[in-house]
Amino acid sequence: MGNETTMHALFDHLRDNDPVVYLDHPDYEPFWVLTRHEDVKYVSQNNDLFINNPRTVIVPQEFEKMLLEQFGTRNGLETLIHMDNPKHRKLRSVTRDWFKPTPIGKLTPMIEAIAHEYVDKMEAMGGECDFVKDVALLYPLRIIMKIIGVVPEEEQMMLKLTQELFGGQDPDQGRGNEVGDGMGVLLDFFAYFKNVVEDRKNNPTDDLATVLANAIVDGSPMEELDQISYFIITATAGHDTTSATTSGGLKALLDFPEQLDKLRANPDLANAAAREMIRWVSPVRHMMRTCTEDVEFHGQIIRKGESLAIWYPAANRDERAIVDPHKFDIERDNRNQMAFGYGGHMCLGQHLAVLEIEIFFKVLLSRIDWIELAAEPKWVEAMFVGGLKSMPVRYAFT
Predict the structure, then answer these.
(1) Are residues 132 and 389 in contact, defined by beta-carbon separation less than 8 angstroms?
(2) Are 357 and 278 spatial neighbours (Cβ–Cβ below 8 Å)?
(3) H helix runs in 23-166, sequence order
(4) Fewer CB within 10 Å: N-end or C-end of the chain?
């Protein structure tokens, strides 16, 4: 899905006319598509009826076969988003306390310093930059890499691998056109984090990598494949989704200038604005679930063993659940939005994501005089995590 306008036009049509539709494509195993808020919420909160395995995200059949051969599962590396209970609950508990609001709040000075660093960069660039490539991709990357313990010299490598993983369908970001290229990306991640695990076991520090490398589950050290998978989802989802929201959030402010003026005049609205940006962008496009028994949605029977995809951008623009959903409103009460998921698999890093976005826009709008688009934005062609890949802007500092 490479364009915001066409994506939402499609979802608007499906919610109103085909809220539960069967998709049979020659390159993919068939699955059902759900687009209404009530259905996405119901699936998300019933984790025994709708399980994550064996299909968690939409990937081509041929790639699923390769993953099965290499890792013994059609998902490949089994991260938290792929797991079902009781394993999911046990492994989630390893970092649950680390990602609670109070510990995350203690990161505020570090995040503020990094936000100023990238706003300094914008100022030094002389009034014009590609906001996505020069700022939005790098700001949350620096934060999550610092949290994990990856040195700055390796950030670009981690960014490249993340783009290859999440943007594999995009000609500018994918590693190549062959099915095996996706496998190569996973194996490169595995090799890198395998070394990180070994280092933190031998040289523990106070970073998140040390927590994961030395984690105990059911009285024994966490299995290596689980550790590597944990690192991968933390390192990739920990910055790519926030990058997409930072750039998409700025675009929303430019598209709704009265909201930009309101936020500039009321910095205390930055937290609510960050949450509205997350709803607006909904960077995680979908998740797959498999039914453990027959279930009915709007007259359609989805059989036991069949898969369905729940679409978060569609749920977050559903007027049945959200008032005037196509309006960007930084004062909106966003307790009903679904961008972080819902239920047992709600995003662990949600408090960190909100804080990063809140702080960045507080810093940017306190220092910048004006900002506008300098060219038409471009979108990543991706089905799992999506957003802008280019947004040239012009601006002036006070």
Answers:
(1) yes
(2) yes
(3) 37-45, 61-71, 87-96, 101-105, 108-124, 131, 139-148, 155-166
(4) C
DSSP 5: H
Please report where in the chains the tokens 């990180």 appear, as a residue: 196
Chain position carrying tokens 């890093």: 349
- 59 to 70, 75, 311, 317: CA distances (angstroms): 15, 9, 15, 25
Structure confidence at residue 250 (pLDDT): 98
Rounded to the nearest 10 degrees, what angle do helices 179-202 and 155-166 cross at? 140
The CATH number covering residue 332 comes to: 1.10.630.10
Per DSSP, the three-state class of 291 is strand
pLDDT value for 170: 52
Q: In whole angstroms, how far apart are CA 212 and each of 5, 190, 192, 347? A: 40, 14, 15, 17
Q: Which long-range contacts (CB under 8 A, 24 or more apart) does 22-30 make?
A: 22/300, 23/309, 27/60, 27/61, 27/62, 28/58, 28/59, 28/60, 28/61, 29/55, 29/61, 29/64, 29/307, 30/306, 30/307
Rounded Cα distance, 86 and 344, in Å: 11
- Give CA angle at 272 (267, 276), nearest 5°: 125
Structural domains in the chain (count)? 1
CB 110 within 8 Å of CB 331: no
> Residue 385 and residue 240: Cα distance in Å, rounded?
8
Amino acid at 2: G
- State the pLDDT confidence band at 168, using cuts at 50, 70 and 90: low
Residue 1 has pLDDT above 70, yes or no: no
In the chain the first and final C-alpha atoms are separated, in Å, by: 38
The long-range contacts involving 115-119, CB below 8 angstroms and separated by at least 24 positions, are 115/139, 115/359, 115/360, 115/362, 115/363, 115/364, 116/363, 117/142, 118/142, 118/360, 119/360, 119/363, 119/364, 119/367, 119/368
What is the predicted pLDDT for the residue at 224? 85
List the domain range (segments joined by +) for residue 139: 4-397
- What is the DSSP-derived secondary structure letter of residue 132? I
Contact assessment for residue 354 and residue 277, using Cβ atoms and an 8 Å cutoff? no
Other Cβ atoms less than 10 A from the Cβ of 287: the count is 24
Average pLDDT over the chain, rounded to an integer: 90
